[in-house]
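re the bet — no i am not wrong, look at it urself. input seq straight from the record:
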Amino acid sequence: MNAEDIETIAVLGAGNMGHGIAEVAALAGYEVRLRDINEELVESGYDDIEWSLGKLEERDQLSEEEADAALDRVTPVVELEDAVSEVDFVIEVVPEKMDIKQDVYREVEEYAPDEALFVTNTSSLSITDLAEVTDRPERFCGMHFFNPPVRMQLVEVIAGAETADETLDTVEALAEGFGKTPVRVRKDSPGFIVNRVLVPLMNEAAWLVEDDVATIAEVDSATKFDMGLPMGSFELADQVGIDVGYHVLEYMHETLGEAYEPSPLLAEKVEAEELGKKTGKGFYDYDDGEGADIPTDAGTEEIESRLLAVMANEVAKLIGGDVAPASDIDEAVMLGAGFPNGPAKLADERGLDDLHATLDELHDETGAARYEPADYLGEAAESGGFYDRNGDTDDVAFENIEVSYPGEQVGRIALDRTHRMNTIDLDLLDELGTAVDQLEADDDVRAILLVGAGDQAFSAGADVQSMAASAAPLDAIELSRKGQQTFGKLQECDMPVVAGIDGYCLGGGMELATCADLRIATERAEFGQPELDLGLLPGWGGTQRLQQIVGMGRAKEIILTAERYEASEMAEFGFVNEVVEGDLESTAFDQAAALAAGPPIAQKFTKRAMLRGWEDTDAGLEIESQAFGHLVNTDDLMEGVTAFMGDSEPEFEGK
């Protein structure tokens, strides 16, 4: 069965994950049968879908007609036979217990069509063991969504021992049809990718406290502010539910051995039913205390080294066990856990030799199995890192942007950090500067098109979380200069630059768009410079460049109020050149292609004169006059005059 053959989907389980997955499928245009064991549960799930669609409508992410149509595609069902008969695809989302799931599949097998595909949303249980109770193990795999499914981009697609490649291909294509990013887990292994990295990391954090190496505050400070992760380890455990991570860890301990022995601290919390936010208290007190109040400077080098070493060891086990390559591990953890950089890359940056040595020392000192280095970690260290091994990089020059050549002498740069709404970090700045240099040096490129990947944002601004470690004044000054200079390359580029803007264009993202020559935006694009709300100011050129486009009065209004503006308002201000209803990429490309067909020498000197003229009128006028004299003797001028006289289109060659 191909993805194109799938029309009707059964979702078994109407809880938080189940109704979220059902909503995603309905929004993608599929007929959905939402089933649970009684009327109350299934109606509650249906009501939650209706509420969620209403929220999307309130935020202008859906029209009223689209929300109503999606809800109409969901049918609440209690009888299992009614739910799965005559469907093409079954997604099981029942409680995370092997015996419960296997019982469900035994019953589903009685009623489901022979050609239907089965998938489980398990976060860690064996796909192979679940498939064994069905008559179709080759048409069975894992399809692990992340919570909340409507918002989270990642779907892990997990192979069982007998899963056919065709099944995996179909499920990946379906995930893409849902608007998600599938990452294939090539081998059935407990925890798959994301939980296999996160849960041992949480466990090591707990062992650090259990062994009196650090306090909870020190560990979370190191995790959040030194390593730059979205949350502290204990803060994340409270958010997800301590029991959730603990039960995954128990399963890993049972199936993978002593290296995954749970810390007694986790067991104590579960036994005391202090499970995190959902119970009002976990590692932090949310009822009578201040919640996760994490100091910014309490982390230590030892904490960071131990956590990175354990994380690197798990990455090595996944790669060495042929579960996934480094690039897929990084993509999955960035999308599923919000890491600013993937764990393999973080480990490479720290140095695998150092991390291997840390594990060796801890293993010699404690004898604990969790510190025994994986064989592959030593191999990767010897060869220079996870990403320096044969073929894993796939010869990709960029990780945070995508550079392509769509034709018509246009070079396209897409900001590609969709897991963080294309926010801009130091690595992206480096790659952007390199890409601009690369395109400027390419004689076959005469215009640059700048867009944001995904459907949420052009760029939601600077990645504040990943830059938290650079909070010292001197570091911040250098960060500001780096952004100014990188964005300045676009502004000073001799070629025309067109920005295609959809979704959020905020903060540093708007400062980047300011450096384009023309800006084309969708109706739903949203602009703003919110830095003053954070106690900052636009630090990547916004205080200077914005006023060049909209005037000082409007620039002050935008920056000082820190408000959000619609595309139509920004068009009135003169910031947006065109607002489009339809295909942004096509319209922006057509504009870039039209500029690429123009006279490159004249364009170069025009841009230089206008830029310098803003800084110094006399200097600008002198550049203008010198350039005018230069252009009189070009072949392009003769081509332009000849074409004009002959009423034809000129073909400029830049000579």
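see?? Residues 39-58 form the longest helix (20 residues). told u. also The chain is about 50% helix and 15% strand. so pay up
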